[in-house]
Amino acid sequence: DVQLQASGGGSVQAGGSLKLSCTVPEFYYEHYAIGWFRQVPEKEREGVSCIGSSNGSTYIADSVKGRFTISSDNAKNTVYLQMNNLKPEDTAVYYCAADPWGYCSGSEATQAYWGQGTLVTVSS
């Protein structure tokens, strides 16, 4: 079974920062697009950010643009999501996912593998 290891969630006050990490098995890191989604109860998962393997392109959702940054460390097969200026509406369970298409679709339907969720709580 393919395991994506997500970590880095926690509780912060509004305006604070957190950095999420997703470590991916090497083959999938090299050939799959790796993205971050988030979900709050009774809502669908929202695509937040992604790095494509096919051309290294990145995607950032409008809702977090200017505050969140996605990056990667090839030596560690890890994708990071740096979240700055966090707002209460960013509170959610964050998941990393791997998409075999290799580019960022933004859709949970195309993701083949998911990491365990990591909870981010932002208080006002």
Concise structural overview:
The protein is mainly beta and 124 residues long.
Features of the shown structure:
single chain; 124 residues; mainly beta; 1 helix; 11 strands; 5% helix
Largest sheet: 7 strands, mixed
Task: Report the order of strands and helices.
Answer: EEEHEEEEEEEE
**Beta-strand content bin:** over 45%
From the N-terminal CA to the C-terminal CA, the straight-line distance is 39 Å
Characterise this structure.
This protein is mainly beta and 124 residues long. It has one helix and eleven strands; from the N terminus they run βββαββββββββ. Strands 2, 4, 5, 6, 9, 10 and 11 form a seven-stranded mixed sheet that branches. The chain has a four-stranded antiparallel sheet with strand order 1-3-8-7, with no helix packed on it. The chain is globular, with a radius of gyration of 13 Å. The mean pLDDT is 95.
Secondary structure topology:
Layout: E1 5-7, E2 10-13, E3 18-23, H1 26-31, E4 33-39, E5 46-51, E6 58-60, E7 68-73, E8 78-83, E9 92-99, E10 113-114, E11 118-123
Parallel strand pairs: 2-11
Antiparallel strand pairs: 1-3, 3-8, 4-5, 4-9, 5-6, 7-8, 9-10, 9-11
